[in-house]
Every structure is written in C-alpha cells, then in structure tokens.
Amino acid sequence: MASSPPPSKRRRKNQIEDVPNDASVQKKSPLIIFAHDATLFVTVAVFFWLENRESIVELWKEMIGKALHAVDVVTFDYPYFSGGKKGPPPKAEKLVEYHLRIVKDAIAKYPGHPLILAGKSLGSRVSCMVAAQEDIDISAIICLGYPLKGANEAVRIETLLQLTVPTMFVQGSKDALCSLDKLAAVRKKMKFVNELHVVDGGDHYLKIGKKHLESKGTTQEEADDQAVKAVSVFVMKVLGES
Fold first, then answer.
1. According to the model, what pLDDT value does residue 84 have?
2. According to its UniProt record, what is one Pfam family this protein matches (predicted)?
3. pLDDT at residue number 68
4. In whole angstroms, what is the distance from residue 124 CA to residue 99 CA?
5. What pLDDT sits at residue 44?
6. Which residues are CB-contacts of 19 (< 8 A; sequence separation ≥ 6)?
7. Per-residue confidence (pLDDT) for residue 69, from 0 to 100
8. pLDDT in tens, 150-179
9. CB-hemisphere CA count at 13 Å for 7?
C-alpha cells in the first residue's frame, strides 16, 4: 500500500477573498466554485504527477482559471474533511446545504458574473445536486471524473436526469467508477445540452499510465491541455462568446 504523500503547505480556504476594486474586471468573466473529491489524499505517484499540489482540484484550479479568465476559482473543504479530519464522507445529499452556502457567499462577493459549478468525483455529484436548487442561476457544470457507479455496482443517474443546466463531463477511458458506455446511455436521456471529453488512457484522477503515453507518443501535459481546451470551448459556447 502506498504511503500518504508529505503534507502540502498549501491549504484550501473556505474564506473568499474580497473582490478587487478594478473596473477592468469583465462582467462576463465566470465565477467558478470548485468542489473536491471524497478524499484530499492521493497516492505518492499521483502526488508527484500533480507536482506537489494538494489534489487534482489544485491543478485544475490553476489551469481552468487561466483558460476561462475567471474572476475567481473558489475552492473549499467539506466539513467532514476540514481541520485535518480524515473520516469517511457522508452521503452526497448531506453536503448540499454546506456547498450551497459556499456558492451563495461567492455570488454575494462577485455579483453579476456567470456562475460555473465544477467538481471532481464526489464534488461533481454534489455540484449537480446544488444545481437542482431553484434559487440560484447557474451557467454550466463541469464534472471531472463523475462517479456514475455507486455502492453495490448501482448506476446513479437520478441527479443527472434532473439537470436543466449545460453540463460538461471529463472522464478517463479507464475510470473504474464510470463506464463510458453507461455514461453515453445516460447522456442521451438528459434533459439539457451536455458534452463529453474523454482522456484516453486516463484513470479516475485523469492520470494516464506511462506505457500508454509512450504507445501514443504523447504526454500527460498534452492530455491535460486538450481537456482544458475542450472545457473552455464548451463554456465559451454556453456563455455566447465562441
């Protein structure tokens, strides 16, 4: 069993920084709320792939924030994992209220900006649940490694079928928690526009094995760039800027 990577000095903050008093900040710059997966700890191999970042959320926060010219990318810890806690996550439904509060606080800080909910695995599922709330206006949802398969091999589709918000999926072709065939079937049933970008050879972390990269003559960085570009094109299209 791989040991836990050394603790990162960088921690997510539940506090949202004050809005910069700068008239040059464009109102169309999106506000992104990015939720983490079930655990903030990863294997040593994944940790060093992330270049010592705390999680895939930290990596994507940098990439997507820059690509979309976001006014801010707000990250946070769910209560069960804040303050150094290491307990198992509760059911996703029990995280919705806290997540929604983070969203509303961010909207109050950045009024008038298009709102995008993003999440990795558990965070993407809770983001979709938050999107079902009728009192917030969401422009798009970005799901990284959506956990379609739940306990006892059950396929969790109810939340996705209720969505009325444009949704982008980024899935690894080798993600054990999301069969691409099953996801394709669910996407056909979804009420609203949705798109999928597949990371060829990617696992649940969207990480590609060394042998697969060598066989394709590509790199992890190139795969990441392609995924970010796909997300950016989708969001810009949704926002009417493409």
1. 63
2. Abhydrolase_11
3. 94
4. 11
5. 40
6. 25, 71, 109, 110
7. 95
8. 766 677 889 999 999 999 999 999 999 999
9. 4
DSSP-derived secondary structure letter, 74: E
CB 68 within 8 A of CB 234: no
Q: Kindly report the backbone phi and psi dihedral angles of residue 137, in degrees, each rounded to the nearest multiple of 5, phi listed first.
A: -105, 110
Residues of the chain with pLDDT under 70: 1-27, 39-55, 83-87, 151-153, 241-242
Structure-block tokens of residue 89: 């996550």
pLDDT at 223: 95
Looking at residue 155, its pLDDT comes to 78
DSSP-assigned letters across all residues of 29-44 = SPEEEEE--S-S---H
Alpha-carbon distance 93 to 130, whole Å?
A: 9
42 closest CA partner among 51, 29, 33, 31 = 51
> Is 8 within 8 Å of 98 (Cβ atoms)?
no
Q: Take residue 129 and report the two structure tokens written for it.
A: 């649940």
Query: d(Cα 105, Cα 31) in Å, to the nearest integer?
Result: 12
**Cα-to-chain-centroid distance, residue 183:** 17
Half-sphere exposure in the Cβ direction for 183 (13 Å, CA) = 24
Whole-model pTM over 0.85: no
Residues 31-241: name the CATH superfamily: Alpha/Beta hydrolase fold, catalytic domain (3.40.50.1820)
Residue 58, token pair as written in the block: 């930290």
